[in-house]
Structure formats: structure tokens, C-alpha cells
């Protein structure tokens, strides 16, 4: 316990301690995101993530976006455990044949209104795996997609900025 | 001719053993060509002589060139720092061979893979269900790694038969492929009596993207990017193993500067993944403070990666002949400064974990994988080391690690705590290794050379954070890849998880799973 208290005091609030430039960018993008979510969704946006065959780097960055340094949750974004709790489906990966049914079922399990975002180059059109015998290709041909977050993998800041761009249009 | 002493040792086991050919194309590889009649006995003899499980077992389609299929089986000889490959040609009509799986379990999954990808039947194999090509969506008679495969022809689809445990009060709990967390896809089926798990069947392959086929007919250079996307959290280890294979084929010798740089990057990858895994273990027992603390350390390492190379996951760093991101004097200071902070933070994290009695109670004696089981399954890497198998490619195969006085982590008990301890000491050792390597970097030497294109085949390998990553590559004179066989440590280790959870309760499954920390994408390819 004493270690936890000591480190809690020593570390302080880490969202303000990373590289000064990056911190400013995150704060600026994040407060914009927060006000957009407040305006358009009441208070919070709930996202369910599904991996349709990604290499795992996109997952790692989405998890990183939730770490104490970026802390997406403070801007009103929650990652939820079930599609039934979600407003938005975040899809990574090039959609392998084995995941096609799971993707459709996950989408169908979400309550209306709902929308889909793709994350990472594979999810846009299959990326490097486009020509494979086992890849279905673009997510947008399977479920309707409103936004793509580019990158291999996209950084946490890129994820925030892309969400802002989408919500401004909506 | 090379390696006569190993032939003599095989002759001790099989008196009338005569190989068709013995080749040593590289100092660390011996290839023994045998006839199909003695293939199985030769493999079993090597298995006993070297105490090695099968490191890789795979097929090649050589029908166009030589009118046959080729099967290769690779064993590791730690004592002499080399790999021994046994290979045979089998006729193309009704291709098949005697299954090794009943005498040497570690061959089992590889044989299922050969069966579904090439249609070569391992005769006498007890379980030939599909691994990655699920029969609900893929018709059986389509063998994608055969050279004449173009696209799937329609055929019979069928359901997968899970092995069932039956009896009073036994029920099944199916989980996945979509899990509750932000994680890859896989299906787990638990058979439970009361609370304890009495059987766990893993069904994977959901992330199968046909990676090995995609390598074919690609140029060396184009394929490096693909190797980085095979398994996203080991992208450097994968690109390192791939480039190593190509560098062996082309006879390129790498400048020492690049060798040390690769050492630094490989250890950085190990560090961010180990701290991530340690945080995951804390998360899965509901201990959120150290989990958050660990994710801050991970983020710091990812940002350090970005500052050194421009990429958080060390993609686009490796290339054939060296590395593209050099570390100059300024970057070296950044690196060493960060390592100092990381060490301090990490030690605090360890203190927080070790001083919590309830945490230690959860991890101690949970999810035990016994050494004998691990050896039979062919479990490798950090999971093997936690169960008392002293194997680490860095110790036996790498000059720079020997020079730096590398100390291999090892534990005996094989539980979650043992795996945690291995990861903790490997993180600390990595910090030390990076300091050693950084001290040997110099400003004058180039960090890459231009390779020549050549035909040939070679095994590339690297000890990634999970364990050995193997790339067996065959290329033609124009530098086009003919066959690329990838073995990620996850492929062998998933089986270990199915045994480690037996007798544990389902609520401890996430904890066991996280302590193994295996890749879906690396397994499914």
C-alpha cells in the first residue's frame, strides 16, 4: 500500500507529463472531442471493438488510447464488452473468411441507431492481404461504414483526430 | 559433406542408416536427405539424440520442378548451435507419409497443417480436423499452398466436431471468437464439472489471412513489410527472422553496427511486451493501480521507439542487409536516459506487485504447466523457460549476446508466478543488454549493405519476446520467394495453455491466458 501511495504522489497526473508538444495536441483534440460528444451523443459514446484478422498492432494502439497517458475515457469514450451496449462498432483487420459471420452477427446484435468505423489500413480494403485466398476484403462491402481511421497502425492521437473529423460532419 | 558425427550418432540408433545426401550450406544448418522409408525413424532418432521437439515440419510443392512434394523436419541442436533438417521427397500421386504424431506429439499440429494446406496425408494421425481453414466456409478438397491452386472451388461444407466430455453434471462453456476485451479472435470451449475445468479445447484460425501464400512470388524487399504484419506485437522479431533467412541465402554479411542496432530494437520490443503482459496479469486479478502503472511504462517505450526510429512498433526499420534507422550520438543519449528512468519505474512496479499478499496468492500455483508436458508439446520460449526448459536462441546462437554476458532467465514451477518472474528478470536483463549494445555502437560504420540476389533456401531465426520465430525461405535466382514457412512460438504454445488450465476454475482462465500472452495472428498466419 505504501508503494502505491508513494508512486501515486510521485507520478502525479501523467496525461500532462509526456512530451510537451504531444500533450498540447492531445489536450486540444481531446477537449474538442469531449464537446462534440456532449453535443451529439448527450454525454458519452460507447464503442465495441472487433478484430477480423488484424495482426494485433491496431488493438495495441486502441488499448494505448485508453492508457493513463491518453485516457480516452475522460473525453467521453467508453470501450464496452458487448455489442449490445455499443453505439459504434470499431473494426480492425482485413476480414478473414472465418470472421465474416462473426462480424455480421456482431453488427446485427447492436441496437439502433448504430454506426461502423474501420481502423487501420487492412480494414479499408484488405491492405497487404488484399489478394489473399482467405480474405474477404473491404469492411464497407459487408457492413455500412461511416469513417476510416488510416494508419498501420494508427497512433492514439490519430484515432482521436479522426473521431473529431467525423463528429464535426455528423 | 558435413556433420559426420551426427550421422554416426544416428547410426548408433539405426544400424543400417544410409542418408541419400548430407549437405551443410551454412555453418549453422545441416540438411540430411533421406528416403521416405527411413524418414520417420531418422526424425525419431534425432528427437532422442538432441532432446529436441520438432521446431518446424512443413511441405513444399516441387511438382513442377522435380515431380514430387518435399517434406522437411527441423530440429534444434543447442549444444552445437545449429539446426538439423531431415528432408524427403514423396511422389505426387496420392501423396502421404507415415505420421510422426503418435511417437512425437510435437509433430501433430504441423502434420494437420500439411494435410489441410497441401493435401498430403499423414497416415495414422489420430486427429485430422482442420486448423485454420474452417470447413464451414472452406471446401475440403482445396489445398491453398499447392502451386496450382488459384481459387476455391465449391465443394462440401461441414461443421467442426468438438471433442466432447460427457457425464453427470458436466456442461460446456463456449467463448469467442469475439471476446469481451480488445483482443484477437479465437474460440475456447470449456468442459466444466462444478468449478474446475476438465477440458479446454481451443479452436483458432479465425485470423487466418493466408500469409504464407502471399509471400510467394514476392521480391525479397517487398516481402519485408509483409513479415512485419504477420504478428503486430512482434513485428521486429518477425522481420529480423525473415531478413536473416534472406541474408543467409544471398551471403550478405551484416555490418557490426547493424547487428548491435538490431539487438537494441529486439530488446526494446521485448521490454514493451513484457511490461504490457505484467500489467495484463495485474488487470486480470483486478489490481488496477499496477496495471495502469505498467501501461505508462509501455507507452514510454513506444514513444522511445518512435523517437529512435519514427515508428512506435519498429516497423519499416529492418531491411535486407541491415537497418534503416541508425542511432547517432544524440539518440544514444535519449536511449540511455530513457532506460535509466524505465529501470527505476519498473522496479517500483515489481515492488508494488510483490508486496501485495492477495496478488501473490492469486498467481502462486495457478495454471501449472509441468516440464514433462511442456517438453512433449514442444513448448518454446518464455513459457518453456518458466517450466524449466533451458532454451533461448540468444544464449546459443548469437555472438553479441555471448559477448554481453547474457544470462538466461529460468524458473522451475511452471505456474503464473514463474512466468511473471521470467518476464520480470528478462525485462531487467534487456535494460542491461541495451546499455551494453549501445556502448558498442560507433559513429563511422554504415548500418546497412546492399545484398546480391541469389537462389537458395535457408532458415532464419530470432528469439522474439515470446520465443523463437522461424522463417524458412526458398528463393529463385531472380530473388522471388518460392516458399516461406513461418513458425511463430504461439503455434506450439497454445497447446500448453490447454493443459495449464486443467483443474483451475474458469475465473482464473483470463489470468492463465494472459500469463501465456500468445498471439492469435501469429498462430493463424
Polypeptide structure, described:
- The complex is a heterodimer of chains A (170) and B (525).
- In chain A, strand 1, helix 3 (57-65) and strand 2 (77-79) form a beta-alpha-beta unit.
- Chain A is built from 6 helices and 5 strands, in the order H-H-E-H-E-E-H-E-H-E-H.
- Helices cover 43% and strands 14% of the residues of chain A.
- Chain A has a 5-stranded parallel β-sheet with strand order 2-1-3-4-5, with helices on both faces.
- Chain A has one domain (2-169): 3-Layer(aba) Sandwich (Rossmann fold).
- With 170 residues, chain A is an alpha/beta fold.
- The longest helix of chain A has 22 residues, at 20-41.
- Chain A starts with a helix and ends with a helix.
- Chain A has helices at 2-11, 20-41, 57-65, 97-109, 121-125, 156-169, and strands spanning 45-51, 77-79, 88-92, 115-119, 147-149.
- With 525 residues, chain B is an alpha+beta fold.
- Chain B folds into 2 domains: 4-123, NADH:ubiquinone oxidoreductase Nqo5 subunit (Beta Polymerase, domain 2), CATH 3.30.460.80; 211-524, Cytochrome-c3 Hydrogenase, chain B (Orthogonal Bundle), CATH 1.10.645.
- Chain B contains 19 helices and 15 strands.
- Chain B has helices at 4-13, 36-50, 63-66, 108-118, 211-215, 220-228, 235-250, 256-284, 288-309, 329-354, 357-363, 371-377, 381-386, 393-397, 399-403, 416-440, 489-500, 509-516, 520-524; strands spanning 21-26, 29-33, 56-62, 68-77, 82-91, 96-98, 121-123, 170-175, 187-193, 197-203, 318-319, 322-323, 456-463, 468-475, 481-487.
- Chain B has a 5-stranded mixed β-sheet. A 3-stranded antiparallel β-sheet of chain B has the order 8-9-10.
- In chain B, a hairpin with a 2-residue loop joins strand 1 and strand 2 (29-33).
- In chain B, helix 8 (256-284) runs antiparallel to helix 9.
- The radius of gyration of chain B is 23 Å and the shape is globular.
Amino acid at each position: 500500500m505504501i508503494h502505491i501511495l508513494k508512486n501515486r504522489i510521485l507520478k502525479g497526473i501523467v496525461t500532462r507529463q509526456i512530451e510537451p508538444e504531444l500533450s498540447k495536441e492531445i489536450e486540444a483534440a481531446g477537449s474538442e472531442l469531449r464537446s462534440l460528444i456532449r453535443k451529439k451523443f448527450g454525454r458519452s459514446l460507447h464503442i465495441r471493438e472487433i478484430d477480423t484478422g488484424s495482426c494485433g498492432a491496431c488493438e495495441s494502439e486502441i488499448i494505448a488510447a485508453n492508457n493513463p497517458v491518453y485516457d480516452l475515457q475522460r473525453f467521453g469514450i467508453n470501450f464496452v464488452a458487448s455489442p449490445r451496449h455499443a453505439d459504434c462498432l470499431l473494426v480492425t483487420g482485413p476480414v478473414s473468411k472465418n470472421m465474416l459471420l462473426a462480424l455480421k452477427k456482431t453488427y446485427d446484435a447492436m441496437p439502433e441507431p448504430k454506426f461502423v468505423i474501420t481502423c487501420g489500413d487492412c480494414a479499408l480494403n484488405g491492405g497487404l492481404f488484399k489478394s489473399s485466398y482467405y480474405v474477404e476484403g473491404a469492411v464497407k462491402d459487408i457492413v455500412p461504414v461511416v469513417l476510416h481511421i488510416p494508419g498501420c497502425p494508427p497512433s492514439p492521437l490519430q484515432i482521436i483526430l479522426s473521431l473529431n473529423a467525423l463528429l464535426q460532419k455528423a | 559433406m558435413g556433420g559426420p558425427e551426427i550421422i554416426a550418432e544416428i547410426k548408433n540408433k539405426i544400424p543400417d542408416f544410409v542418408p541419400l545426401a548430407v549437405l551443410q550450406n551454412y555453418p549453422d544448418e545441416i540438411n540430411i536427405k533421406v528416403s521416405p522409408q527411413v524418414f520417420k525413424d531418422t526424425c525419431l532418432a534425432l528427437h532422442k539424440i538432441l532432446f529436441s521437439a520438432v521446431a518446424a515440419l512443413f511441405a513444399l510443392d516441387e511438382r513442377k520442378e522435380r515431380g514430387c512434394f518435399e517434406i522437411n523436419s527441423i530440429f534444434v541442436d543447442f549444444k552445437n548451435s545449429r539446426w538439423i533438417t531431415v528432408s524427403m521427397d514423396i511422389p505426387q500421386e496420392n501423396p502421404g507419409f507415415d505420421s510422426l504424431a503418435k511417437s512425437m506429439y510435437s509433430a501433430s499440429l504441423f502434420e494437420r497443417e500439411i494435410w489441410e494446406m497441401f493435401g498430403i496425408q499423414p497416415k495414422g494421425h489420430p486427429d485430422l480436423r482442420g486448423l485454420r481453414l474452417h470447413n464451414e466456409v472452406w471446401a475440403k478438397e482445396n489445398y491453398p499452398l499447392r502451386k496450382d491452386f488459384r481459387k476455391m472451388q465449391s465443394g462440401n461444407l461441414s461443421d467442426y466436431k468438438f471433442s466432447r466430455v460427457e457425464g453427470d453434471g458436466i456442461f460446456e462453456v463456449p467463448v469467442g471468437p469475439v471476446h469481451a476485451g480488445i483482443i484477437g479472435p479465437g474460440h475456447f470451449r470449456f468442459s466444466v464439472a462444478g468449478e474446475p475445468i476438465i477440458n479446454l479445447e481451443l479452436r483458432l484460425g479465425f485470423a487466418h489471412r493466408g500469409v504464407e501464400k502471399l509471400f510467394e512470388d514476392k521480391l525479397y524487399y517487398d516481402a519485408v513489410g509483409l513479415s512485419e504484419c504477420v504478428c503486430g506485437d512482434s513485428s521486429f522479431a518477425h522481420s529480423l527472422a525473415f531478413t536473416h533467412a534472406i541474408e543467409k541465402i544471398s551471403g550478405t554479411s551484416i555490418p557490426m553496427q547493424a547487428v548491435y542496432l538490431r539487438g537494441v530494437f529486439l530488446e526494446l520490443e521485448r521490454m514493451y511486451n513484457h511490461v504490457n503482459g505484467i500489467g495484463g496479469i495485474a488487470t486480470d486479478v483486478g489490481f488496477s493501480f499496477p496495471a495502469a502503472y505498467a501501461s505508462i511504462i509501455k507507452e514510454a517505450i513506444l514513444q522511445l521507439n518512435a523517437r529512435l526510429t519514427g515508428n512506435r512498433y519498429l516497423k519499416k526499420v529492418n531491411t535486407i542487409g541491415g537497418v534503416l534507422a541508425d542511432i547517432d550520438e544524440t539518440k544514444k543519449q535519449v536511449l540511455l536516459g530513457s532506460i535509466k528512468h524505465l529501470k527505476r519505474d519498473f522496479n517500483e512496479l515489481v515492488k508494488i506487485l510483490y508486496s501485495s499478499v492477495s496478488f501473490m496468492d492469486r498467481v502462486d500455483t495457478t495454471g501449472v504447466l509441468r516440464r514433462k508436458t511442456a517438453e512433449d508439446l514442444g513448448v518454446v520460449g518464455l513459457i518453456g523457460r518458466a517450466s524449466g526448459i533451458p532454451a533461448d536462441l540468444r544464449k546459443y546462437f548469437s555472438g553479441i549476446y555471448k559477448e554481453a554476458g547474457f544470462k538466461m532467465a529460468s524458473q522451475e514451477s511452471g505456474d503464473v508466478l514463474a512466468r511473471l518472474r521470467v518476464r520480470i528478470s528478462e525485462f531487467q536483463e534487456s535494460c542491461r543488454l541495451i546499455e551494453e549494445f549501445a556502448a558498442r555502437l560507433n559513429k563511422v560504420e554504415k548500418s546497412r549493405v546492399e545484398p546480391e540476389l541469389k537462389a537458395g533456401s535457408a532458415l532464419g531465426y530470432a528469439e522474439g519476446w515470446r520465443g523463437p520465430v522461424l522463417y524458412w525461405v526458398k528463393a529463385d535466382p531472380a530473388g522471388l520467394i518460392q516458399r516461406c514457412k513461418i513458425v511463430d512460438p504461439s503455434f506450439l504454445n497454445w497447446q500448453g495453455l490447454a493443459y495449464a488450465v486443467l483443474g483451475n476454475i474458469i475465473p482464473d482462465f483470463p489470468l492463465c491466458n494472459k500469463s501465456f500472452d500468445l498471439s492469435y495472428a501469429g498462430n493463424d498466419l
